[in-house]
Automatic annotation (TrEMBL), chain A:
InterPro entries: ABC_transp_permease. It comes from the Bacteria. The chain crosses the membrane at residues 46-79, 91-109, 153-174, 205-224, 256-274. It is a multi-pass membrane protein. It is found in: Cell membrane. This is Simple sugar transport system permease protein. One of its GO terms (cellular component) is plasma membrane. Its main location: membrane. One of its GO terms (molecular function) is transmembrane transporter activity. Keywords: Cell membrane, Membrane, Sugar transport, Transmembrane, Transmembrane helix, Transport. It comes from Salipiger aestuarii. PANTHER family: GUANOSINE ABC TRANSPORTER PERMEASE PROTEIN NUPQ (PTHR43370:SF1), SUGAR ABC TRANSPORTER INTEGRAL MEMBRANE PROTEIN-RELATED (PTHR43370).
TrEMBL record, chain B:
It is a multi-pass membrane protein. It comes from Salipiger aestuarii. Keywords: Cell membrane, Membrane, Sugar transport, Transmembrane, Transmembrane helix, Transport. The keyword Cell membrane applies. The chain crosses the membrane at residues 12-33, 53-75, 87-104, 110-128, 140-160, 200-220, 241-264, 276-295, 302-323, 329-348. Coiled coil: none annotated. GO terms for cellular component: plasma membrane. This is Simple sugar transport system permease protein. CDD domains: TM_PBP1_transp_TpRbsC_like. Pfam families: BPD_transp_2.
Automatic annotation (TrEMBL), chain C:
GO terms for molecular function: ATP binding; ATP hydrolysis activity. This is Simple sugar transport system ATP-binding protein. Belongs to the ABC transporter superfamily. It comes from Salipiger aestuarii. It is found in: Cell membrane. Its main location: membrane. The keyword NADP does not apply. Gene3D superfamilies: P-loop containing nucleotide triphosphate hydrolases. Residues 7-242, 259-506 form the ABC transporter domain.
C-alpha cells in the first residue's frame, strides 16, 4: 500500500470518526452523570434531519447547525424528563427516543419536501465546506510530512476540528473544574451530592443538555459536512457504535478518541475494500462491519480489561433517609 | 398499604398512557396537515372492516405476540432483551436451513421441525449475552444490541455468499419447496362462495402464537420455573437465599426469550415470504418492547397489545397507500407508546396515586 | 439574660401518607452541649433530623437557629445555617479521594486546583485540632468504616458547621472506635460546637451527653438533663413501660451436638476473607448466640451455613458432612437437609415483596413434592396451608392474597418465621430476629424461639443487640474480624467483657485494653485495605 492510499484511508478515517467521537463524548457526559443513554442514535438522527432541513430552507448551514442542536437538545430533554424528573427506565426512554427520531424525521421530511423522506441536496452555503489550513499548498511538496499535513490534517470541515478539540476540552471540564467534579460525583454517588447541598437533578439535566449539544454537532456534521443532505436512517447505527466506543474507552475522554479512531478506521476500510485478501485468507466485508460490536462484547466480557460503568448509572435518584 | 389498588396500576396506568400517546399522535397528524379522524377511519376500514385487512392485521399480530413474549420473559427475570431483532434474524436462518435442506413430506412436519429450529437458533443467539451477563456481569442491554448488529452481518454474509442461488441479484435464499408452504387463512377459511382473507399473509402460525401465550402463562404462573424466574426478577439476593441459582435463571430465561424471538421468523419466513430475505424481521423485535410494556408482561395484555400494533401496522400501510402520510407515522406512535408506558409511567402514576389517596381519605 | 438555643424546634409535624412520623415536636438544644435524642427504631428520630437538615419539609412547625427563625427547604440552606450532618449510611463518593469528597459542593470557585490546595491546609489544621487524622489523598473505598466517618465529620467542619448532627454513629463501629469518636466529640464540644447525637443506645447517652430528649412513636416524651436521669428512667420513657427485655425461660437441657462447624472460611467477591476459620458446635435444645459489631462476619456465617454463599472447611449436620460449594450446596439443599434460615434482611432476602403472602409461605421450599402436582405447582394446596399458618402465627391481616410489602415489619417477620419453623427443622438459623419489629411482635418472636429450643431444636442466633443476645442465649460466642474470639455463659459474663471481645481483645491482652483494641483494629483495617488493591 502506497502513501497516497494510506493517506486516503486515514483521511476517510478522520471523517468517519468525527460523528462517532462527538456522539461518544455526548454519551460520556450523560453516563458519567449517571444517566444511561442508548438514544444517541436518535438524537443524532434528529439533528441530522433538522440541520439539513433548515439549511435547505434558509440556505445557511449555520442556522441549520443551530436547528440540529436544538432538535437533539429537545430529544435530550425528553430523556431527562423521563429519567430524571419522573424516575423512569432510562434504557426504555432511550429506545423510545430512537424510534421517535426515526419516525418523525421521515414524517416531517415527507411533509416538507415530498421527496420520500429525504431533504433536497445541499449546495453552497448550505453545507460545511472543507477548510484549507494555512501553508497547506506551500508545504504539500515536502516529502511525507507535506502530504500528511495537506491531505490528512488540512481540508476538513470546521466540525471535524471542533470534534477533536472537544477531547481535551471534555477532559479538562471533567477533571479540572468544579462542574466536572460534581458531575463525576453525581454519577457515582448522587446522595453525596445531594447532602452536600447540590442539586442532583440540576447536574444531571446539565449533563443531558451537553449530551444533546454534542449529539447535535454529530448529526449536523453527518448531514451537512460528511454528506450533502439528509436521507432516512442516515445515522445507520453510528449512535450504537459510539456507545460501543464509550464502553471500549471505559468512559474516559482520551480513550474515547482512540476508540472512535479505531472504529472509524474499520468503517473506512470496509468502505474502500469489499473483501480484504490477507495472504490467502479472504476477510469478508461483513467482518469489518461487525468488528466494532464484537470488540465491544469482548471488552464487556472482561476478557481484555474490565469496563465498569459509573456506579449510579441507570438508577434514578430517590431521596432516602 | 399500597397507594392505589392493584387493578388501577394494572389497567388504569397503561390505559391513560396509551390515551396520551394517541393524543400526541393525533397532534402529529394534525401538524402535517391531515385529519386524525379521517386517518383513523381509513385505518379501521383498511385493517378491520375487510377480512383481507384482518388477514394482514393478524399476520403482524403474530409477529408481535412472539417478540412481545420474548421481551416479557426477560422482563420477568429483570433483564431487558433488546436483542429480539437479532435473535429473530438467526431464528429465520434456522427456519431457512431446515426448509431448504430437509425434504419434508407435509407442511405439518415441516412446521414442527422448523419451529424447533427457529427456537433453537434464536435461543443460541441469546445464549452468549446471557452467559456473559450471568457469569461476567456484562450488561445484557449493551451485549444484545451488539448482537443485533452482529446478527445482521452474519445474515448478510450467509445470504450473499452462501445461500443466494446462482445468478440471483437480491440477497435472499431460493424459494422453499412447496411441501413446506404453510396454510394461510385463505387456504383454511375461504370457500368458493365466500372468498375470505384473499391474498392476506396470516397463516397457521397465528395459532402457534396464541398457543405460546397460553404456554407462557402456564410456565410463568403455574410452574416452579416461572415462580423462580419471577422471584429472581424481584430480588436476586432473595433468590440466592432460596437456593435459586442466578446463573441458571438468567440463562434459562434468556434462552426462552431468544427462542420466542426466533419463532417469530416462522411467520415471516415460512408463512409469508417462503424464503429468507435480508430484512425479514422488519423491526418486529423492537416492537416487542412496546408490546411487552403495554401488555404489562402478561400474556393477555401482550395479546391485546400485539393486536393493537397489528392494527396500527396494517392501518399504517393503508394510510401510506391512500394518503400522503408515510408508514413512519406508526414508528412515531410506537415510540410514544414506549415512552409513555415504559419511561414516563410515573408521570401518569404519581397524580393517579394522589387521586386515590384523596379518595381514600374522603371515604 | 440566657443564651439563645443553638437550635429550637417548635411544633414540628410530619406525615408520610397515613403514617405520622413526627407530631408536634418541641425541643431546645443549647450551644456548646452534646444533646442526645434517644428512641426505639421507628420512633421518628431520623425523620426529625432529616427535616432539620432540609431533606424533608415539615408539614407544620418552625425552626430557630441561634434564636433566628430559619427556613430550611434544602440541604444547601442547612449548610448555610451552620448545620452539618453525619448520616448513618455515609454519603461519600467511593472513587474520590478524601480531599475531593471534602470540597464537593463547597468549592471556592469554578476551578478545582485552588480549592484543593486550600482544603489541604484546612484539613491538616482540623486533623490536628480534633484528633481527626486521615490521609487526604486516599480513596474512600480504601478506608475503614471508622475513617470514612471521620471524613464525614471533616466535611461538616470544612463547611464551618457549628451544629453537628450524628445519626446512629456507633452502629458500625467497634467499642474502641466508638470511644475514639466520643473523644472527638468531646473536643468539638470544648471548642464550642453543638452536637446532636441520635442513638438508641442508652449507654452512649449516659456516657457523653449533657441533655437528652426521648422520642416515642413520633412524639417527644421528655427532655431531661443527663446528670439528673438514669438508664431505667430513659428506658421507661422510650418504650412506655418498665421492662424492655425479659424472656421467661427455664435452663436449657442441651442434647447431642447437631450442627458442628469446623474451620469455616469464606472470601467475598471483593477478595476480603470474611470468615477466617470459624469453629462452633450447636447442640439440640440450646440457643447459641453470636454477638459482635455489625460487619465482622456474622452475616456471612449465617449465609455460609444457610447455603447462600460458598465456603470451605466443614459443616456436619447430625454427623453428616454437607457440601460447601458446587452442586448440592445451595439454600434449597440445606433446607432439605433440615436447616431452616430466618435471614437478617427479610425485605431483600426472606421475602419477595411483590409476591402474595401465600406465594411467600413456600419461598425456598417451592421445590418440595408437596408443592407440586405433576409439572405444575399445587397453588390451591399452598394457599390453604398459608391460611392455616397465618392464623396460627397471628399474622395480621390474615389475608394470604395480600402482597408481602403490605404487611408491617413484625407481621412480615412472622410470615418468614412461620415458613421456616413449620417444616420441623433440626437447626434454625436466625439473624436479627426483631430488627424493625414492634414490641408486641418482639415478645411473640422471642417466645417462639424459646419454644423451639425447648422442643429440642438447635438454634443459632445472630443479633447486634446485646440485650437480645443476653435474653435468649444459653451460650454466647463473640465474633470479630471473621473469627470467634471466645465463648461465654451469659450468667458468668457482662457487657464490658463482651465489649472487649467484640473489639478483638482476648483475655491474655486485657492488661492494656486500649492499646490492644487499637492494635487489633489496625490489623483488621490493613487486611481489608490490602484485599482492595
Amino acid at each position: 500500500m502506497d502513501l497516497l492510499t494510506l493517506l486516503q484511508v486515514l483521511d476517510s478515517t478522520v471523517r468517519l470518526a468525527t460523528p462517532l467521537l462527538l456522539a461518544c463524548l455526548a454519551g460520556l457526559f450523560s453516563e458519567r452523570s449517571g444517566v444511561f443513554d442508548i438514544g444517541l442514535e436518535g438524537k443524532m438522527l434528529a439533528a441530522a434531519f433538522a440541520s439539513a432541513a433548515v439549511a435547505a430552507l434558509t440556505g445557511s448551514v449555520w442556522i441549520g447547525l443551530l436547528a440540529g442542536i436544538g432538535a437533539a437538545v429537545f430529544m435530550s430533554l425528553i430523556h431527562g424528563l423521563a429519567s430524571i424528573t419522573f424516575r423512569g427506565n432510562q434504557l426504555i426512554s432511550g429506545v423510545a427516543i430512537n424510534f421517535l427520531a426515526s419516525g418523525l424525521t421521515v414524517l416531517i421530511a415527507q411533509d416538507l419536501f415530498g421527496q420520500g423522506g429525504r431533504t433536497p441536496s445541499l449546495i453552497g452555503a448550505g453545507r460545511f465546506e472543507p477548510i484549507t489550513l494555512p501553508f497547506a499548498e506551500a508545504l504539500s511538496g515536502v516529502p511525507v510530512l507535506g502530504p500528511i499535513y495537506a491531505d490528512l490534517i488540512s481540508g476538513h470541515s470546521i466540525l471535524v476540528y471542533v470534534a477533536f478539540a472537544m477531547v481535551p476540552l471534555s477532559w479538562w471540564v471533567l477533571f479540572r473544574t468544579r462542574f466536572g467534579l460534581r458531575l463525576r460525583a453525581v454519577g457515582d454517588s448522587p446522595e453525596a451530592v445531594d447532602t452536600a447541598g447540590v442539586s442532583v437533578a440540576g447536574l444531571r439535566y446539565g449533563a443531558v443538555l451537553i449530551c444533546g449539544l454534542l449529539c447535535g454537532l454529530a448529526g449536523a456534521y453527518l448531514a451537512t459536512g460528511l454528506q450533502a443532505g439528509f436521507v432516512r436512517e442516515m445515522t445507520a447505527g453510528r449512535g450504537y457504535i459510539a456507545l460501543a466506543a464509550l464502553i471500549f474507552a471505559k468512559w474516559r475522554p482520551v480513550h474515547a478518541l482512540w476508540a472512535c479512531l479505531l472504529f472509524g478506521l474499520l468503517q473506512a476500510v470496509a468502505l474502500r475494500y469489499q473483501n480484504i485478501h490477507l495472504g490467502g485468507i479472504t476477510i469478508p466485508v461483513q467482518v469489518m462491519d461487525a468488528l466494532p460490536y464484537i470488540l465491544t462484547v469482548i471488552i464487556l466480557a472482561g476478557f481484555v480489561g474490565k469496563a465498569i460503568p459509573p456506579r449510579a448509572g441507570g438508577e434514578p435518584y430517590v431521596k432516602e433517609r | 398499604m399500597d397507594k392505589m389498588p392493584a387493578w388501577a396500576d394494572a389497567v388504569l396506568v397503561p390505559l391513560i398512557s396509551i390515551l396520551l400517546a394517541a393524543l400526541l399522535s393525533a397532534l402529529v397528524i394534525l401538524a402535517i396537515g391531515e385529519s386524525p379522524l379521517d386517518a383513523l377511519t381509513l385505518m379501521i376500514e383498511g385493517a378491520l372492516m375487510r377480512s383481507s385487512g384482518w388477514g394482514y392485521t393478524l399476520y403482524y399480530t403474530t409477529n408481535f405476540i412472539f417478540t412481545g413474549l420474548c421481551v416479557a420473559v426477560a422482563f420477568h427475570a429483570r433483564m431487558f432483551n433488546i436483542g429480539g431483532e437479532g435473535q429473530a434474524m438467526i431464528g429465520g436462518l434456522g427456519v431457512a436451513l431446515v426448509c431448504l435442506f430437509i425434504p419434508f413430506p407435509h407442511w405439518s412436519v415441516a412446521l414442527l421441525v422448523a419451529t424447533l429450529a427457529a427456537a433453537v437458533f434464536g435461543a443460541l443467539w441469546a445464549l452468549i449475552p446471557a452467559y456473559l451477563q450471568a457469569k461476567r456481569g456484562s450488561h445484557i442491554v449493551i451485549t444484545t444490541i451488539m448482537f443485533n448488529f452482529i446478527a445482521a452481518a452474519v445474515l448478510n454474509y450467509v445470504l450473499v455468499n452462501l445461500l443466494r442461488p446462482t445468478g440471483a441479484m437480491d440477497p435472499a435464499t431460493a424459494t422453499f419447496p412447496a411441501a413446506t408452504h404453510l396454510p394461510t387463512f385463505q387456504d383454511m377459511f375461504a370457500t368458493p362462495d365466500n372468498p375470505l382473507f384473499r391474498g392476506a399473509p396470516a397463516n397457521v402460525t397465528f395459532f402457534l402464537a396464541v398457543l405460546a401465550c397460553v404456554a407462557f402463562w402456564l410456565v410463568m404462573w403455574r410452574t416452579r420455573l416461572g415462580y423462580e424466574i419471577r422471584a429472581f426478577g424481584h430480588s436476586e439476593s432473595a433468590a440466592k437465599y432460596a437456593g435459586i441459582s442466578p446463573v441458571r435463571i438468567t440463562v434459562v430465561a434468556m434462552l426462552m426469550s431468544g427462542g420466542l424471538a426466533g419463532m417469530m421468523a416462522l411467520n415471516t419466513t415460512m408463512g409469508e415470504a417462503e424464503r429468507l430475505v435480508l430484512n425479514a424481521t422488519e423491526g418486529a423485535g423492537f416492537i416487542g418492547i412496546a408490546v411487552a410494556l403495554m401488555g404489562r408482561s402478561h400474556p393477555v395484555g401482550i395479546f391485546l397489545a400485539a393486536l393493537l400494533f397489528g392494527f396500527l401496522y396494517q392501518g399504517g400501510a393503508e394510510l401510506a397507500l391512500w394518503t400522503s402520510i408515510p408508514r413512519e407515522l406508526i414508528t412515531v406512535i410506537q415510540a410514544l407508546v414506549i415512552l409513555f408506558t415504559g419511561a414516563l409511567d410515573n408521570m401518569v402514576r404519581m397524580p393517579l396515586e394522589r387521586v386515590f389517596l384523596a379518595l381514600r381519605k374522603g371515604a | 439574660m440566657t443564651q439563645a438555643p443553638a437550635i429550637e424546634l417548635k411544633g414540628i409535624s410530619k406525615a408520610f401518607g397515613p403514617v405520622q412520623a413526627n407530631k408536634d415536636i418541641n425541643v431546645r438544644v443549647m450551644p456548646g452541649t452534646i444533646h442526645g435524642i434517644i428512641g426505639e427504631n421507628g420512633a421518628g428520630k431520623s425523620t426529625l433530623m432529616s427535616i432539620l437538615y432540609g431533606f424533608y419539609k415539615a408539614d407544620a412547625g418552625e425552626i430557630f437557629v441561634a434564636g433566628r427563625k430559619t427556613d430550611i427547604p434544602n440541604s444547601q440552606a442547612a449548610i448555610a445555617a451552620g448545620i452539618g450532618m453525619v448520616f448513618q449510611h455515609f454519603k461519600l463518593v467511593q472513587n474520590f479521594t478524601v480531599l475531593e469528597n471534602v470540597i464537593l459542593g463547597a468549592e471556592d470557585g469554578p476551578m478545582l486546583r485552588p480549592s484543593l490546595a486550600r482544603a489541604r491546609g484546612v484539613l491538616k489544621q482540623l486533623s490536628e485540632d480534633y484528633e481527626l487524622s486521615v490521609d487526604p489523598d486516599q480513596l474512600i473505598e480504601n478506608l475503614s468504616v471508622g475513617h470514612q466517618q471521620r471524613v464525614e465529620i471533616l466535611k461538616a467542619l470544612y463547611r464551618q458547621a457549628d451544629i453537628l448532627i450524628l445519626d446512629e454513629p456507633t452502629g458500625v463501629l467497634t467499642p474502641a472506635e466508638a470511644d475514639h469518636l466520643f473523644r472527638i466529640l468531646d473536643g468539638l464540644r470544648a471548642q464550642g460546637k453543638t452536637i446532636i447525637l441520635i442513638t438508641h443506645k442508652l449507654r452512649e447517652i449516659m456516657e457523653i451527653t449533657d441533655t437528652v430528649s426521648v422520642m416515642r412513636r413520633g412524639g417527644m416524651t421528655a427532655t431531661v438533663k443527663t446528670a439528673e436521669t438514669s438508664p431505667e428512667q430513659l428506658a421507661e420513657l422510650m418504650v412506655g413501660r418498665k421492662v424492655l427485655l425479659q424472656v421467661h425461660k427455664t435452663p436449657a437441657r442441651p442434647g447431642a451436638p447437631v450442627l458442628q462447624i469446623d474451620d469455616l472460611r469464606h472470601t467475598d467477591r471483593h477478595g476480603v476473607e470474611r470468615l477466617r476459620g470459624v469453629s462452633l458446635t450447636v447442640h439440640a435444645g440450646e440457643v447459641l448466640g453470636i454477638a459482635g459489631v455489625a460487619g465482622n462476619g456474622q452475616s456471612e456465617l449465617l449465609e455460609a451455613i444457610g447455603g447462600c454463599v460458598d465456603a470451605s472447611g466443614s459443616i456436619l449436620l447430625n454427623g453428616k458432612a454437607l457440601p460447601l460449594s458446587g452442586p448440592g450446596s445451595d439454600g434449597a439443599a440445606r433446607r432439605a437437609a433440615g436447616i431452616a434460615h430466618v435471614p437478617e434482611d427479610r425485605q431483600t432476602e426472606g421475602l419477595i415483596m411483590p409476591f402474595t403472602a401465600w406465594e411467600n409461605t413456600v419461598f425456598g421450599y417451592h421445590r418440595d413434592p408437596a408443592c407440586q402436582t405433576g409439572p405444575l405447582m399445587n397453588n390451591a394446596a399452598i394457599k390453604q396451608q398459608a391460611q392455616d399458618k397465618m392464623t396460627r402465627y397471628d399474622v395480621r391481616p390474615p389475608n394470604p392474597a395480600l402482597a408481602a410489602r403490605n404487611f408491617s415489619g413484625g407481621n412480615q417477620q412472622k410470615i418468614v418465621l412461620a415458613r421456616e419453623i413449620e417444616r420441623d427443622p433440626d437447626v434454625l438459623l436466625i439473624g436479627q430476629p426483631t430488627r424493625g419489629v414492634d414490641i408486641g411482635a418482639i415478645e411473640f418472636i422471642h417466645k417462639e424461639i424459646i419454644r423451639l429450643r425447648d422442643a429440642g431444636k438447635a438454634i443459632l442466633l445472630v443479633s447486634v443487640e446485646l440485650d437480645e443476645i443476653f435474653a435468649l442465649s444459653d451460650r454466647i460466642a463473640v465474633m470479630f474480624d471473621g473469627k470467634i474470639m471466645g465463648e461465654r455463659a451469659p450468667e458468668s459474663t457482662d457487657q464490658t467483657e463482651l465489649g472487649l471481645l467484640m473489639a478483638g481483645v482476648t483475655a491474655s491482652q486485657a492488661g492494656d485494653p486500649i492499646a490492644a483494641v487499637d492494635a487489633s483494629l489496625h490489623q483488621k483495617e490493613r487486611r481489608e485495605a490490602r484485599a482492595h488493591d
